C-alpha cells in the first residue's frame, strides 16, 4: 500500500476516568457523540489517514462477555467507509463502574476478553493501543490520588501498575489470536526528572527509574535491582514478575512516546516536584527510551495551549517536528507523528479533576469545528513531508493494511503467514542490569 510510509496522525480524545465517583467522559465534553461524522470528515480534510481512536469503554463494555456495540458499529463503520486507519485505543484512563478501578485483580483477564471480542467484531482493524499511558494512569490513580481509586501509596501504585500492564499484555495476546498481523503502538508518557540541587539527586534518580516500570514490564525487560526491591516491597509477587519476563511481544510493537511541555520536572530534596518546562526536549528523552528498548518509535501525542494570536501552538508544532527529524536523522527509526487531539479538549487544565467546562485550546480545530492556525500548519506540514519520509522499520515487515485492503488475497495470505508464527517472544534477550 502507498501509505506504508510515515504515519501522520491525530486523535479523538476519549479519556474517561472517574473522579470522586463522577465519570469524566471527554467524548461527551468535546461533543464527539454529536459530531462524530463531522469529526471524521475533518480528519480526511487535513490529509490524515491515521487516527488514534477508541469506543467509550464504560458505555461499551457492560459486563463479562456483554457489550453494547451500537456506537462502535456506527463509528468504525464510517472509518472503514472513509478508509481511515484507526489506532484503536481500548482503555483510556478509566474502566466501567462494574469493574470498579485498577485495584481489581480480575481486570486483566476480563479486559483481555473484551479486547478479543472487539477484534472479532472489527477484524479489519490492525493497529492497537490496548491501554493508553499505563504509567500515567497508575500514577494519577494510585499515587497522586487524582482519579479512579484515588489512592496515594506505593503499594496502591504497584498494584494498579501490575494490573494495567498485565491487562495490556493479555489483550495483545488475545488480539493476536484474531488478527495475527496486529501491530501495537504503545502510547506512553516520556518523562524526565531533574535534580534541583545535589540533595535532590537521590530522589530524582529514583523517579527516573520508576518512569520506565510500565514499559519494562510490558516488554519483558529486567528491571534494575533497586526497582526490583521496590516492586517486591510493594506487593508484586515473584510469579507475577516472571509472568512479565516471559510474555514479551516486542516483535509486534512500536514504542509510542508522548511528550508535552509538562513532561519534565524539577525535583526537590524532599521528593516534591514542580514543572521545569522544556529542558532536554523530545529528541533527548525519546532517544533515552529508544536506547533502552530498541524499538521503532512513534511520537504519539503532543500539543500546546494556543495563545490569542494562534502562534504558540504553531511554534510548538514546528519545534516538535524539528525534534522528530533530529531523532530520525540520528538513526532512530521514527515512524509517525501525532498532534493530539483533533478538536479542543475540556478541563485538562485541572487534569480532569474539576468539572468546570473549561475549553482548552489544544486541538487542530476548536469545539465549533473551526480550524485553528495549528490545523492549517499541520495540514501544510503533512503535504510538504508526506512523500519525503518513507518508513524504515523492521517492525513493519508486515505493512499496514488499509481497511479497504483487508479482504484482498495478498492481505489474507499475509495474515495466514503471520498466524503460523509463534505469538510469544519468550526467547527474546532481556537486558540484565
UniProtKB/TrEMBL annotation:
One of its GO terms (biological process) is carbohydrate metabolic process. Pfam families: Glyco_hydro_1. GO terms for molecular function: hydrolase activity, hydrolyzing O-glycosyl compounds. Residues 409-433 are annotated as: Disordered. It comes from the Bacteria. Residues 422-433 have a biased composition (Basic and acidic residues). InterPro entries: GH (IPR017853), Glyco_hydro_1 (IPR001360), Glycosyl_Hydrolase_39 (IPR051923). PANTHER family: ALPHA-L-IDURONIDASE, BETA-XYLOSIDASE-LIKE PROTEIN-RELATED. This is Family 1 glycosylhydrolase. It comes from Ramlibacter algicola.
Amino acid at each position: 500500500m502507498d501509505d506504508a510510509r510515515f504515519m501522520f496522525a491525530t486523535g479523538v480524545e476519549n479519556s474517561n476516568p472517574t473522579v470522586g465517583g463522577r465519570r469524566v467522559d471527554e467524548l461527551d465534553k468535546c461533543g464527539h457523540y454529536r459530531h462524530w461524522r463531522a469529526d471524521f470528515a475533518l480528519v480526511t480534510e487535513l490529509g490524515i489517514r491515521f487516527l488514534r481512536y477508541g469506543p467509550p469503554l464504560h458505555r461499551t463494555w457492560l459486563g463479562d462477555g456483554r457489550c453494547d456495540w451500537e456506537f462502535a458499529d456506527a463509528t468504525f463503520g464510517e472509518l472503514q467507509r472513509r478508509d481511515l486507519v484507526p489506532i484503536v485505543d481500548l482503555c483510556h484512563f478509566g474502566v466501567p463502574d462494574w469493574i470498579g478501578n485498577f485495584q481489581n485483580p480480575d481486570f486483566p483477564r476480563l479486559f483481555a476478553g473484551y479486547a478479543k471480542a472487539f477484534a472479532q467484531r472489527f477484524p479489519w482493524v490492525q493497529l492497537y493501543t490496548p491501554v493508553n499511558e499505563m504509567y500515567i494512569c497508575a500514577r494519577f490513580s494510585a499515587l497522586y490520588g487524582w482519579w479512579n481509586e484515588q489512592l496515594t501509596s506505593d503499594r496502591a501504585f504497584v498494584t494498579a501498575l501490575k494490573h494495567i500492564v498485565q491487562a495490556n499484555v493479555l489483550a495483545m495476546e488475545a488480539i493476536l489470536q484474531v488478527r495475527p498481523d496486529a501491530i501495537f503502538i504503545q502510547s506512553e508518557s516520556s518523562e524526565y526528572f531533574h535534580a534541583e540541587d545535589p540533595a535532590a539527586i537521590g530522589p530524582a534518580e529514583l523517579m527516573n527509574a520508576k518512569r520506565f516500570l510500565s514499559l519494562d514490564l510490558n516488554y519483558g525487560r529486567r528491571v534494575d535491582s533497586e526497582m526490583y526491591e521496590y516492586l517486591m516491597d510493594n506487593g508484586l509477587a515473584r510469579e507475577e514478575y516472571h509472568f512479565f519476563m516471559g510474555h514479551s511481544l516486542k516483535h509486534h510493537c512500536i514504542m509510542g512516546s508522548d511528550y508535552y511541555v509538562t513532561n519534565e520536572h524539577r525535583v526537590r530534596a524532599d521528593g516534591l516536584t514542580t514543572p521545569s518546562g522544556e529542558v532536554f526536549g523530545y529528541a533527548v528523552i525519546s532517544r533515552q527510551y529508544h536506547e533502552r528498548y530498541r524499538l521503532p518509535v512513534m511520537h504519539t501525542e503532543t500539543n500546546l495551549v494556543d495563545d490569542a494570536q494562534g502562534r504558540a501552538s504553531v511554534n510548538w508544532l514546528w519545534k516538535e517536528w524539528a525534534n522528530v527529524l533530529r531523532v530520525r536523522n540520528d538513526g532512530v527509526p521514527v515512524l509517525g507523528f501525532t498532534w493530539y487531539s483533533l478538536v479542543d479538549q475540556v478541563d485538562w487544565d485541572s487534569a480532569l479533576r474539576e468539572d468546570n467546562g473549561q475549553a482548552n485550546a489544544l486541538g487542530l480545530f476548536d469545539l465549533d469545528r473551526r480550524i485553528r492556525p495549528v490545523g492549517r500548519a499541520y495540514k501544510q506540514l503533512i503535504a510538504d513531508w508526506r512523500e519525503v519520509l518513507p518508513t524504515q522499520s523492521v517492525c513493519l515487515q508486515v505493512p499496514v493494511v488499509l481497511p479497504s485492503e483487508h479482504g484482498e488475497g495478498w492481505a489474507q495470505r499475509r495474515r495466514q503467514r503471520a498466524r503460523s508464527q509463534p505469538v510469544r517472544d519468550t526467547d527474546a534477550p532481556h537486558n540484565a542490569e
